[in-house]
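Quick review question:
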């Protein structure tokens, strides 16, 4: 299934273009080497119009370090703090509150263990405090960690921490604005690009924007006790990447993506020129999927369909599929003007495959019933590889590979072979595409 490795490529479709902060949290999927995906996300977010900051939520976190004893984490922090990158660890945050968790562990009490209620400061969430004593839901809401995932109280710690940081920043900005107003400073000149252009315009890319000639914003006429303001550094002046491939993460545009899964809040960057008879699907979730057993029992006892709708998990697998030639040719129009690397990637859906094969291998690379072409030239599957995880295939690694060069129009086509009309539906070699990526 999906992981951080493929989902960072779809930031522009997954999140709204209006966001100021992108949250990243894949604590239990990352294992080794995840700094590559975090760096990709940081750098690609800076290529988005509003240049949102990336904030990393870590579901665990060592005492007093927030995983700061990891060299790669420290390097990322130092390199990208000036672009707003930061991290918060739930467990480390609780330690910093002053509670003596170490003594409790020595006494056999592990508040970070599975299903433990109470974090040492509170026994339930604010929502839970409004419920009567003895209410099973009240106790359930006080769970710090359901298992390896945080429970309601654990997530409240994280949401409170983020809210506190953001509101503190807003109050600081308002204080400075008020001080500027009292000093007679032109607020539009100090805080905004006043000629109607947004940062990220062509002139910024050439380094000519007046807003970027100096990183420091001129101070008000009266001395201020506040720390000085600094404009965001130009995205195209970013340092060389530490972990990710410069071919992919030093591009002037973020990847363009079409993601058929739900939910998405952004704009697809790849158009479907011809859907033909290929069918779009979304897997339906039962309301109790990924809901704890205690909560399931409580909600079942309510006999209330509204509560069931509230609990239905928003995430759902999806894609566009076909099984034989009668469904025609699926054509994606890739955004040639925004492609500089030449990466073209397809991801597939869903579930376990026979023979221990990955989804990408079984559904595409070893499936002789599907062909893919770029501008009517059939692509050679032997040159492709599984990338960046087991559900995706790098159809084209870069421009120049196999003499494939950038053209004004880039059409990616998928076609299925003829099948025996008497073959049972479940026996037909389906292809289900969940993501299309171009960079």
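Suggested answer, residue by residue:
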């Amino acid at each position: 299934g999906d992981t951080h490795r493929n989902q960072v490529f779809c930031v522009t479709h997954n999140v709204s273009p209006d966001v100021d902060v992108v949250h990243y949290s894949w604590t239990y999927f990352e294992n080794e080497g995840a700094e590559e995906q975090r760096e990709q996300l940081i750098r690609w977010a800076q290529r988005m119009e509003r240049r949102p900051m990336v904030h990393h939520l870590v579901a665990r976190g060592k005492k007093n370090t927030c995983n700061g004893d990891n060299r790669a984490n420290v390097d990322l922090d130092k390199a990208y703090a000036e672009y707003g990158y930061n991290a918060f660890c739930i467990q480390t945050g609780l330690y910093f509150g002053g509670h003596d968790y170490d003594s409790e562990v020595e006494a056999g009490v592990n508040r970070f263990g599975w299903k433990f209620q109470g974090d040492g400061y509170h026994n339930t969430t604010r929502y839970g405090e409004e419920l009567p004593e003895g209410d099973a839901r009240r106790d359930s809401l006080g769970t710090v960690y359901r298992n390896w995932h945080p429970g309601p109280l654990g997530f409240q710690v994280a949401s409170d921490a983020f809210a506190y940081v953001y509101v503190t920043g807003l109050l600081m900005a308002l204080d400075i604005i008020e001080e500027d107003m009292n000093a007679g400073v032109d607020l539009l000149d100090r805080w905004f690009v006043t000629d109607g252009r947004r940062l990220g315009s062509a002139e910024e890319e050439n380094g000519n924007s007046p807003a970027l000639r100096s990183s420091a914003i001129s101070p008000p006429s009266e001395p201020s006790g506040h720390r000085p303001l600094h404009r965001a550094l130009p995205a195209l002046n970013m340092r060389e990447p530490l972990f990710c491939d410069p071919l992919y993460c030093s591009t002037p545009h973020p990847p363009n993506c079409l993601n058929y899964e739900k939910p998405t809040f952004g704009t697809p960057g790849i158009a479907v020129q011809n859907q033909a008879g290929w069918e779009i699907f979304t897997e339906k979730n039962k309301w109790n999927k990924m809901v704890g057993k205690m909560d399931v029992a409580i909600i079942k006892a309510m006999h209330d369909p509204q509560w069931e709708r509230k609990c239905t998990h928003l995430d759902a697998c999806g894609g566009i599929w076909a099984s034989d030639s009668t469904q025609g040719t699926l054509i994606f129009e890739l955004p040639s003007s925004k492609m500089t690397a030449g990466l073209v990637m397809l991801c597939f859906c869903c579930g376990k495959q026979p023979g221990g094969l990955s989804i990408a291998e079984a559904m595409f690379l070893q499936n002789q019933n599907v062909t893919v072409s770029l501008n009517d030239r059939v692509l050679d599957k032997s040159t492709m590889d599984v990338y960046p995880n087991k559900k995706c295939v790098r159809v084209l690694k870069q421009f120049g590979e196999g003499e494939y060069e950038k053209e004004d129009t880039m059409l990616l086509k998928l076609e299925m072979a003829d099948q025996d009309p008497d073959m049972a539906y479940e026996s037909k070699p389906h292809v289900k595409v969940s993501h299309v990526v171009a960079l």
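Why it works: The first strand starts at residue 21 and ends at 24. The two ends are 22 Å apart (CA to CA).
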